[in-house]
Design goal:
With 74 residues, the chain is mainly beta. The protein contains one helix and five strands, in the order βββαββ. A hairpin with a 7-residue loop joins β2 and β3. The longest helix is centred in the middle third of the chain and has 11 residues. It is globular and about 35 Å long.
Length: 74
């Protein structure tokens, strides 16, 4: 499973794969970028940590939802 971070930048928001310098997606607002996530991750298995404007983690989402490890027993 790939890990991504949705984080603020000096000129908007970006989605970056962990360990990679170049952003996969950019948008002016956080909400605009969050709305792009389902289409971007279609056919992929990934975990996204969504950060607040101060850089702390607000939530974590798994795509597709069926891959969420919290839904399995054990």
């Amino acid at each position: 499973m790939d890990n991504y971070h949705l984080s603020p930048t000096s000129d908007g928001w970006e989605l970056k794969k962990a360990g990679v310098d170049r952003a996969s997606k950019r948008a002016a607002t956080k909400q605009e970028l969050v709305s792009m996530l389902p289409d971007f991750f279609e056919g992929k298995t990934a975990s996204v940590k969504i950060h607040k404007a101060d850089g702390t983690i607000e939530e974590e989402r798994t795509y597709p939802r069926s891959a969420d490890p919290r839904r399995t027993k054990g």
